[in-house]
Amino acid sequence: MSVPEELVVLLAEDGTRIGTTPKATVHTLETPLHLAFSCHVIGPDGRILVTRRALSKLTWPGVWTNSFCGHPGPDEDSVDAVLRRASAELGLPISAPQLVLPDFRYRAVDASGVVEYEICPVYVAYTDATPEPNPDEVMEWAWAEPGSLLESVEQAPFAFSPWLTLQLPLVVPLLAETTAH
Residue 180: what are its φ and ψ, rounded to 5°? Predict the structure, then answer.
């Protein structure tokens, strides 16, 4: 039995769904706007899980990034996609994915010229488990205090994915709000 081809949802500039394309071919020098998501996982002590992308990744290989990312399938609920990728990428059970940045969007060009161009809602989720990452996705991981991570991203943005450098300044204050209550 063959594995079904993974599709990503193509979007118009206004965010309207306009079709699908194979994930394996979407990221090029002229990547079309498509739907994705990012998730920041928080441990019981309030630290945030960061991962280092595998060297085999097409875009930004070897850089540190948020906990995990992915693309919802054409008929897949976004929260279901977040739960699916947490398991597939990190072998990690998570609970309570919360949409914190519903309109996050970015375009970035990798050193190789490959473009990421996504409407990428951002989630925060929680776990008390230890990651068991898929080595095709993640080569390293660490728990980081959010404020220290933000300082590192500000001082050395080249060591981090462009989406993390854009998301983290928006996510860290939200984390402070949720732990203050």
Answer: -80, -20
Interstrand relation of 64-65 and 37-42 (parallel, antiparallel or unpaired): unpaired
Binding residue per annotation — 154?
no
* Alpha-carbon distances, residue 93 vs 15, 30, 85, 133 (angstroms): 30, 35, 10, 12
Q: What are phi and psi of 129, to 5 degrees?
A: -100, 170
> Does residue 116 have a known ligand-binding role?
yes
Residue-wise over 19-55: b if at least 16 C-beta within 10 A, else e? ebeeeeebbeeebbbbbbbbbbbbeeeebbbbbbbbe
- Cα–Cα dist 138/95, whole Å: 21
Amino acid at 137: E
Question: If DSSP codes are grouped into helix, strand and coil, which group holds residue 48?
Answer: strand
Is 181 annotated in a binding site? The answer is no
Which CA distances in Å does 6 have to 21, 53, 56, 136? Answer: 9, 20, 18, 16
Cβ proximity of 36 and 15 under 8 Å: no
| Residue 151 marked ligand-binding | no
Active site residues: 69, 118
pTM of full prediction above 0.90: yes
Per residue in 135-158, pLDDT (tens digit) is 999 999 999 999 999 999 999 999
Given pLDDT bands bounded at 50, 70 and 90, which one contains residue 178?
Answer: low
